[in-house]
Hints:
The protein is of the alpha/beta class.
Amino acid sequence: MATIQDVAKAVENGKAKLIQGLVQEALGAGIPASDILQEGMIGAMNVVGAKFQANEIFVPEMLVAAKTMKKGVEVLKPHLAGDAMGSMGKYILGTVAGDLHDIGKNLVGMMIESAGFEVIDLGVDVPAETFVETIKANPDCKIVGASALLTTTMDSLKNTVEVIKAANLGVKIMVGGAPITQEFADQIGADAYTPDAGAAAVKAKEIAESLK
């Protein structure tokens, strides 16, 4: 019978073909679905994020681990009480207007979801007003992530932060992307900057905990 440790190892090592069977076995052994999710999967993704930040693994391994977790969650969903997957709250995410890059954003989305958030992904080339409309439509959402992957769209990121702030909706804004630095994030008034997806998940959890 599979244990929580077996599930965690499968996620960590990206064993996408094995994960669903292991989750099923763990459930069959009477392990609560919420424990398999929190201790097995989210715990494993925390390890993956830490390894990524330490340059022990790279984007491909991280993507495979996140996809493996997603497959495992499909088996868990019918067994989870309420929406444990979104237990950390909602997180609105998008690449700013004029920018069509989505690999970094998608990776951040996967990691944020793996940390227990319900992710509302607006996609790419997102106008600042769309961020505002989505925040208004989800008043329980307290964190927004915006990314710019081109130096030419850094102004668009600045504008997005300004428009969201001006709407006075009480959300925290996280920014990131290849050309973005802590210094630039401070200049444009963002609440947080993270250099990679693993750090984004850690920071999002910190912010969510501080808002409780």
